Amino acid sequence: MRMIERGVYDIPLMLSKSLEPHRDELQRDLINAQRRLRDFALRHQWGRHIEKSFAQRAEIYDDQLKFIEALLKTAGADPSTALPDTVSAALENDIFMSISPDVYSSIYPQGIEKHSFEKLITHEMAHRLHIRILNNDEEAMGPLWFFEGFAIYAAGQFADVRMNTVNIHAVLHDKNRGSYLTYGATIRYLLNYVSLREMVENAGSEGFNKWLLEHTERIQDE
Fold first, then answer.
1. Who contacts 211 (Cβ-Cβ below 8 Å, separation ≥6)?
2. Are residues 147 and 175 in the same domain?
3. What are the tens digits of pLDDT across the range 131-182?
4. Boundary residue ending a domain (133, 150, 170)
5. Which domain holds residue 163?
6. Among residues 98, 133, 168, which one ends one of the domains?
7. How many CA atoms lie within 13 A of 112 on its CB side?
8. Which is nearest to 29 in space by CA: 45, 13, 42, 44?
């Protein structure tokens, strides 16, 4: 695969036939998404983890059901596996797979923002960056709110969402899947007290949430 510049590759792109007129635009999104993640990694001194492409191929579908069918097949999962109604993208077995920008906007309208599709791609690649940082130990990625929040923060998604003390406690104590909008905002809030590198290093520990609260006295005092 041809490297365009450091951390950015010319990833082969497969499209549904109806999306062919948008090939140049979608290829540009793939490139800009890699640049976005590259810049994030360099800011946090994780540059050595971007020297290899995060995907060997990209597939973008014009229909969510076709995307889900292809995703489950690529992942080797049961074809009847139920996925969230808003499932939009994934990176499995070195293949980035997603629905088209228009379908993404229709099933997840709260995700619409400037460069939203580019950020969606970055989000999925950010999960792979996170795993590389942890030497492929996926169990060390931490609770759901954190590893999703890491990817949201890396992608620059939902940057206008703000949190308060009550919201933070709710996110950290919720065992169920919540709003992705709050996960990224939680990371940004906690960065006032703890560095992202420290969070990544400690996320796999059993007492991670308690550790965060102990290191953010202002959250407890407000």
1. 202, 205
2. yes
3. 999 999 999 999 999 999 999 999 999 988 888 777 888 888 877 777 888 9
4. 133
5. 137-222
6. 133
7. 10
8. 13
